[in-house]
């Protein structure tokens, strides 16, 4: 991660805090449920910060200390930190007092979801099943399973605070504090608790404006779509690729006469919709296409080859793109896993991933180099690239930087031969520098083959 130094350098200081007590069961949940999603290095960083919570005791230390404890470089620490933030296990705050002065980072550890919440969370549970396989997933769910009792069948008899404790006169409350105690904190900084998922999806993953526009207020009043229902809709739409108009039908099918939307019923209906649409195959991120809200060519007739390519990359899934590039052969599991990992961990949209695939294939002799792909993907994630057009423009702007990354990878595997020649590349890249890996690889020919395969796919569809 070449530009990590813009965010973090070794002399920057840090301290660690947690608003919750972390328990042994959290260690199990992190190791067995979260580790398959974030990887062992991100887990190691979390565990190290957990240890620092007690060792530092609120004191500050430089990131040199963290590098020594983990025996890895600052770029690795930075990239793994982003994974922890993305999945809701870490909140990071920074204080920069003066220009050129070391920053102070506050790393606030967030506890993982309780096991039952994790397995009820539609996104995390499905991705865990994809990562570990059905058999291990069932074994894990059995280990963490808790018997669920329907509370609606019982009558609540819990006493309130005022029922149990006698009232205390106001003057006694005031007398219980001295000026040395400092002010009593009022509100703010409230912890949401472990029953709520601590990671978040952007609102723009689902077009709520279109969803509400075609929904009758008489059938589904706005008050029925509570914050929790809205969050569930967003997750289910992202996970199963449900368009707004289809989600309208699903919601209409589960809302009861009292205008209440049961989230469990909503999940079940979404799952059934997906099974009907896809024949029971589990959802995969690599099957997604670019969301309508992020398409710039949706209602535009392409006038140039560049615009034709943009439109194609907006309407094809990464898996289908890989298949077409391979001449109709199904992509390898390794390639699919690589693409799915960056879509999940870096939260890149499908169209942006398509540009990444197209670019890397042209630059590396039709191969997907894992480190190279991940490096560019993390760069685009930091830049918040959301559209195909933005990705293509950034690829053109940063072409020489990406070429340097490719050269660095090449130096690590073999001696670089000094070959200098001008190559013909797609118009939207407009680059002019040395060939990265294979001197016999014809980029122009590869580009033509890609265009022909995509044209064939476009004509057939």
UniProtKB/TrEMBL annotation:
Question: Which organism does this record belong to?
Answer: Geobacillus jurassicus
Q: Where is the DnaB/C C-terminal domain?
A: 335-393
User: Domain Replicative helicase loading/DNA remodeling protein DnaB N-terminal winged helix, which positions?
Assistant: 12-169
Q: Which Pfam families match?
A: DnaB_2, WHD_DnaB
Q: What is this protein called?
A: Replication initiation and membrane attachment family protein
Tell me the protein family, please.
Belongs to the DnaB/DnaD family.
